[in-house]
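User: Hey, my collaborator sent me this sequence without any context and asked if I could get a structure. I don't really work with proteins. Can you help?
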Amino acid sequence: MAKRILTLAFAALISLLASMAREVLPSEVIKKGNPDDPQIERAPMRNPIVAAYEETDATITIQCNVDAEGDVTMYNSNGAIVFYSSEIDCTLDVSGLPTGAYTIVAETDSWIVVTYFSN
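Assistant: No problem. I've predicted the 3D structure and written it out in structure-token form, which is a compact way to encode the shape of the chain:
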């Protein structure tokens, strides 16, 4: 729990530094696992999530390119939840959001993808 709070705090800080143009910024992939596992993986994990901003209808479409179950949560810069979906594949309506920086977290049992949006 403390690790997730630290991750969200770091994500909020990074999102504050993002440009103020409407855009979805590159993602970070965090692999979950046993920290005591001595196995070292040399290749970076591929990003299983595609997040695309649709300017015409002010939505962000989240699509997972692997078979996975999980949820998507969007936080504002204060850490408050502004959107939640229990499905990985979802569409976020951002038309009514106040100007600011947001953190989008997609999470499954085996990985977390953190991406950022600013408007």
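In plain terms: The two ends are 29 Å apart (CA to CA). You can pass these tokens on to your collaborator as they are.
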